[in-house]
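TEACHING EXERCISE
Course module: macromolecular assemblies
Task: Read the component lines below, then compare them to the predicted structure of the full complex.
Student: A.B.
Group: 4
Components provided:
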Amino acid sequence: MIELRSDNAAGVAPEILAAVDAANTGSALAYGGDELTAHLQEVVRSVFEHPTARVFPVTSGTAANSLALSASTPPWGAVLCHESAHIITAEGGATSLFSGGAVMRGVGGPHALIEPDELRAALESVRWGDPHESQPSVLSLTLPSDYGTVYRPHEIAALTDIAREFELRVHLDGARIANAVAALDCAPADVTWRAGVDVLSLGATKNGALSAEAIVAFDDRIAEELVYRTKRSGHVTSKMRFQSAQVAAYLTDGLWLRLAGHSNQRMAELVAELESLASYGVRLAERVDVNMAFVELPAAALDAAADAGLLFYRMDETSIRLVTSWQTTADDVTTAAATFRAAVAADA
Ligand SMILES: Cc1ncc(COP(=O)(O)O)c(C=O)c1O
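Instructor-supplied answer key:
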């Protein structure tokens, strides 16, 4: 079996397990009062080059998004996001629950990225001050997008400038932000606060952590709300030191970027192989910027590839999503490519 369904299906990176093991000595104050959580705070400030950033460990990406957003919007607010964003398509309305009623509004744009003109048009069409309409209060961007595409730092800044004109705050869903930072080869600050982001959902689980994610608030008012909101939603865990140890290890000495760079590289190799099968009707449905590819292939070839042991997510009869992870090996790529090649050739 070759695992290409999701990076969520991968295991825990050995370096992260070692950090949990190292944290497992003696006792420590509960609920984040421990030294490892204090250390994580310093690590985050250093990695993001932001002296007052505040970090809140949580246990899932959905929790990070919905709590970060609920701390940024009033209950009558609207969160603007791309129409394909995870917060609007796949979180069961968690943001509405935690915010006490805020809604999500989809904005369009090619490659699953918000188009600045569409954002401006959406904001200009609002009946501001009319209580019959939810009032846009936050712009939520996703990096990389749910289709594996990335905004460059200046593209994020262009969108956050528009958001500021209309007094919106800005949230970044960074469930896979390491993959984007590795692909862009930029500073983490360049795609976050320096580009106008107020609060970040910092993913780690998909890239090797064990149910450990974090919210990073660059805005102190959002941080103050998070103090209470994380507690009330059950995310101030008693043994937080084990989450903090993971996220700190993840961000230290570039581990997060090494793991993400590895998965990006494996996907680039797989994509090169798939591109060589164009004459068999294999086509990339979206550009590939990180560790995720959307591919169209003949239905019979997909059935054959699945029967041969490739694990992938089937979007419909003839299209699939492939995701590599920190765990994907060069041999996995070779075997997957050979399996696809044999499947399309048999169907030709
Ligand atoms: C872009 C994005 N954001 C958020 C999430 C939510 O993460 P979780 O499944 O940990 O709640 C996911 C999960 O796949 C995701 O892909």
